[in-house]
Amino acid sequence: MSTDGLLAYCRPGFEPELAAELGERAAIAGCPGYARTQRNAGYVEFLGVEDGAALSRALPWSTLIFARQKLRLLADVAGMDPKDRITPIMEVLGGRGRYGDLMVEHPDSDEGKQLAALARSFGNALRPALRQRGLLTDKDDPRLPRLHVMMLAGDHALLASADAKDASPWPLGVPRLRAHADAPSRSALKLEEALMTLLTEKERAEFIKPGMFAADLGAAPGGWSWVLARMHVRVLAVDNGPMAQTAMDMPIIEHIRADGFRWQPPKPMDWLVCDMVESPRKVADRMATWFREGWCKHAIFNLKLPMKKRWDETRDCLQHFVDHAGRPLTLRAKQLYHDREEITVYAG
């Protein structure tokens, strides 16, 4: 059945937060609708809108906090014959133009992961069929929309499209990062993903250069300091707790035993990073102080969310940060794949 709206992927369990974010922001943009989802499904459909294209433009993927991926919903195809899933999909796609790429996916949920093999095999069958009909280019073309097929069951799929400039480039919206054996902690992956997701390639090259200085508040055991040091950034690692030896073996990391909420840098830093376990309002307030006092140019920090009203707390904490930072800032926030009950924020 053809439809119009948005399809967004999220961390399983955070569907209510994503639904609330989409609903509130769509209403503010003058494109009201309603969210449809189930707890732990790993995705949200936003339906009932008059103009899905206008809504998609009003809610860029890079500005959505709880969405790993944002797509334009095309159709809900149910009741497919497992012996011929291609024909009903072709019928829906007829007359919609060509696509420059194809991703056949499954929800990132316990139930959805059981469909991984089906998604892989069906993608291998669907791709040449689309090319034979002239619906998919022979080689990937980012100038054209990307077709997404989300398998919900053996006989049920959602069809959606993505603008390569307004969507995550990774399947399921999840970058594949490899853990390093000598990383002090798995939190290193969190900062690596943040740098990939919240900064463009051009910004990474411009904002992070060898010889720069960074402060890492709540650094122990040193995962984030280690990532920055590998990029040849000199790090003041601030924490009363012990640092891992693999971090301290890097001469450009200096461990300062102090409280991250009270410590002040000896001079302005190029970067501030912070992954302290504290209330999100307290962290947001301290981050605002760093910008207001001119202690840093750029920052990446985490906000640990409460168990209830997580969208409200996210919105309010980010607004508190903006109101108290003392100067205009570029602000981006995402719940990353390597995040759990938290979001990661870039400001600069």
Helicity level: 25-40%
Q: Compute the average pLDDT.
A: 95
Main sheet attributes: strand count, strand direction, barrel closure: 7 strands, mixed
Strand segment tally: 14
Index terms:
348 residues; Alpha-Beta Plaits; Rossmann fold; 2 domains; 7-stranded mixed β-sheet; 10 helices; 14 strands; 24% strand
Protein model, in words:
30% of the residues lie in helices and 24% in strands. It has 348 residues and is an alpha/beta fold. The chain has two domains: 2-168, Alpha-Beta Plaits (2-Layer Sandwich), CATH 3.30.70; 187-347, Rossmann fold, CATH 3.40.50.150. Strands 2-3-1-4-7-6-5 form a seven-stranded mixed sheet. A seven-stranded mixed sheet has the order 10-9-8-11-12-14-13, with helices on both faces. Strand 9 (234-238), helix 8 and strand 10 form a beta-alpha-beta unit. The chain is elongated and about 65 Å long. It starts with a strand and ends with a strand.
Secondary-structure blueprint:
Layout: E1 2-9, H1 15-28, E2 34-36, E3 43-47, H2 52-58, E4 69-77, H3 86-93, E5 101-105, H4 116-132, E6 146-153, E7 156-162, H5 187-198, H6 201-207, E8 213-217, H7 223-230, E9 234-238, H8 245-248, E10 253-256, E11 269-274, H9 280-292, E12 296-304, H10 310-324, E13 331-334, E14 342-347
Parallel strand pairs: 5-6, 8-9, 8-11, 9-10, 11-12
Antiparallel strand pairs: 1-3, 1-4, 2-3, 4-7, 6-7, 12-14, 13-14
Helix pairs in contact: 5-7, 9-10
